[in-house]
Write a structure and sequence with these properties.
The chain is an alpha/beta fold and 306 residues long. The protein contains eleven helices and eight strands. It has a single domain, classed as TIM Barrel, CATH 3.20.20.140. Helix content is 41%, strand content 13%. α6 links the parallel β5 and β6. It is globular.
């Protein structure tokens, strides 16, 4: 068994032990399933973030997240590729290859419906850290879901790869449609299922659509992007502001289909990592340690097949 697999097995055993009630760990292990790494100084630059973004346009690299991890007790993380460039998938995998304990997975970026999708997916998924792709852009608008896209989504399921969905560009109806057509494809909606957070009762139209999407057992949701979904900079730090949306997600998905993620470094537009984590912990702590263990770590390992 390789050192990488030994390390991952060890981390997994720690989390399984916690969830099953074994051991006397003083803190709950946290797997952050949504961070971005990039280097704005690379030749040719980067497609994201924009140069005009004074908060994010700077190199964001492993030493930066190492500090965040140590300050906030993050045991491991899954990187989400924010670049549309094919080569950047391998660039990230190579960037973190010497830290297999911290960086346990990559959600890649491959364009669905293209002639080389299958070849690229087969090549990248040979690396066990490559766990799936994020569906980012709805090219062709209403005509996005053509035969080629369905072919590639079926291939994801066949290879036991997962699908993250950037909800800023897709709808709950899109998620429901995919989940019904391909029930073996594991789908993870990013950023609290695209909810607009304003501190008030949830939008009833959104809530009804959420229930329809969640009726599919292969649909999960990330407790991520809270600050950005408030559309305020700086974002509110009071848990009560986020409570209506978080309560709705708990009611619909429960402890088994919610997964923690931060969306760092985008969180910095709204506040610090610690302030984001504090909101999530205030939400989860009343649920009990077993439920916290699932949302903060165990569900991520199960969903991504780590």
């Amino acid at each position: 068994m390789t050192l990488y697999r030994l390390n991952i097995v060890f981390i997994g055993l720690l989390i399984v032990a916690f969830i099953s009630g074994c051991g006397q760990q003083q803190s709950i292990p946290i797997v952050d399933t949504h961070i971005h790494l990039y280097d704005t100084t690379r030749d040719g630059g980067v497609p994201w973030p924009a140069k005009s973004d004074t908060v994010l346009f700077r190199p964001v690299l492993p030493p930066d997240f190492a500090r965040i991890s140590e300050e906030n007790g993050i045991a491991a993380t899954v990187i989400v590729e924010a670049s549309s460039l094919l080569a950047d998938n391998q660039w990230v995998l190579d960037l973190v290859k010497d830290e297999p304990e911290r960086y346990i997975g990559l959600v890649g970026s491959l364009e669905l419906g293209t002639s080389d999708f299958a070849a690229n997916l087969n090549e990248l998924s040979a690396d066990p850290r490559f766990v799936g792709i994020r569906m980012r852009d709805k090219s062709r608008g209403a005509d996005f879901f053509n035969d080629a896209v369905w072919r590639d989504l079926e291939l994801l399921a066949d290879l036991d790869q997962t699908l993250d969905v950037l909800m800023a560009n897709f709808t709950l109806e899109d998620v429901d449609r995919i989940a019904q057509r391909i029930p073996t494809l594991k789908i993870l909606m990013n950023h609290v299922a695209g909810a607009n957070i304003d501190g008030k009762l949830v939008d009833p139209v959104w809530a009804r659509s959420l229930v329809r999407a969640a009726r599919n057992p292969n649909v999960f949701c990330k407790v991520s992007g809270l600050f950005q979904q408030s559309h305020l900079q700086p974002s509110p730090k009071d848990f009560e502001f986020y409570k209506p949306v978080l309560d709705e997600l708990w009611k619909v998905f429960g402890e088994d289909r919610l997964i923690y993620g931060s969306n760092w470094p985008v969180t910095m537009r709204g506040g610090s990592y610690a302030s984001f984590k504090a909101v999530v912990f205030e939400f989860l702590e009343p649920k009990g340690r077993s439920a916290m263990g699932k949302v903060l770590a165990g569900n991520a390992y199960e969903f991504y097949g780590l």
